[in-house]
Amino acid sequence: MKSSNLGLFFGLSAGFLWSFTFLAPKATWQFSSTEILLGRYVAFFIISLFFFPIKKIYNFFKENPRFLKEALIITTAGFSGYYFLLIEAVRLVGVPITSFTMGMVPVTMVLFSGDLKKNLKLFFLPLSCIVLGMLSLVINDILRLDSNKDLEELIWGGLIALSALASWTYYALKNSHFLLKHPQVKSKDWASALGFLALPTVILFLIIEGIFRNKTFYLPEASTQEVWIFIATSLAIGVGSSWLATICWNLAGSLMSKELLGQMVVSETCFAILLNIIYEKRFFHTAEIVALILLSLGVALAAGKNRSKSIPAL
User: Fold this and answer.
1) Residue 175, SS3?
2) List of residues 6+ apart from 45 with CB closer than 8 A
């Protein structure tokens, strides 16, 4: 299999695995955002230690001390901070708006990497399809608002979703830059190292949140079945959507350009919409069909574009 096709496969695989993180807040609605965040990264931490023991992690950073700072920044931007924002956005405006906001990653990656004029010209058509897909869904949701409260939640949820978008864009560019600059680092080792550092950043995040919100961590009064659903969900998004997805994303990042890599994130949006429809046991809304077609078209067009391996300007 050609490296470009292999990169495409890994990019789409990462998108599919990540899409489950949008459903987690709905499947575990009895639990707070911080509890879901902690559950995910405890599972990520455990699986990372299984494949990358503490001694090996210690030696990895001892031999490459400059990697520790990079790993902490990437972990915070792409894992703990980002996912907390995403959970809050999903609970305010739902899966479609939040996932389609994250579908704007291709736009932001093009805007903030390399030659802006060249990238916009090269990816103008696929990016236009993605933007139109986003607009169709947002306009549809605005027309369905019932009250000022709904409008306020839409605005706040939209702002939080945009913050998550900014955080993840930085993570994607920074991580791609690191892997292209250090090809000797194995994707599995790097993913495990990030998983090891994710839990400490989450704990720090929880402490800061507790100080500002004057809140302590607690488990809700949930039934045994709900607790098991929470544990299963934590394992699914901690192992599949975090560890395995990170490996797939790292492999994709080492096989394709950063511009094309950004287009692959749209697959996460498409999969998230499909899974949400299945979860809600309903059919597509017209706006969702239009948006999915446009987003899929954008990815297909992007896949045929230039795939050069230039390092992002950060």
Assistant:
1) helix
2) 195, 196, 198, 199
d(CA 14, CA 252): 9
The burial of 102, by beta-carbon neighbours within 10 Å (0-12 exposed, 13-18 middle, 19 or more buried), is given as: buried
**pTM for this prediction:** 0.80
According to DSSP H, which parts of the chain are helical? 3-27, 33-51, 54-63, 66-75, 81-102, 105-111, 116-122, 124-143, 148-181, 187-213, 224-235, 245-253, 258-264, 266-280, 286-303
CB contact set of 169 (below 8 Å; sequence gap of 6+) = 105, 108, 109, 112
**Rounded to whole angstroms, how far apart are CA atoms 291 and 307?**
25
For 29-34, which contacts have Cβ atoms below 8 Å and span 24 or more sequence positions? 29/91, 30/220, 30/222, 30/226, 30/230, 31/219, 31/220, 31/222, 31/230, 32/220, 33/84, 33/87, 33/88, 33/91, 34/84, 34/206, 34/209, 34/217
Per-residue pLDDT reduced to its tens digit, 28-64: 888 888 889 889 989 988 887 777 778 888 888 888 8
For 235-253, b/e burial (b = at least 16 CB within 10 A) is bbbbbbbbbbbbbbbbbbb
pLDDT digits (tens, 9 = 90+) for 148-160: 657 788 889 989 9
Of the candidates 83, 74, 95, 75, the one whose C-alpha atom is nearest the C-alpha of residue 26 is: 95
Q: How far does Cα 14 stand from its chain's mean position?
A: 9
Angle at 199 between CA 196 and CA 204, to 5 degrees: 135
Structure tokens, 162: 């945009």
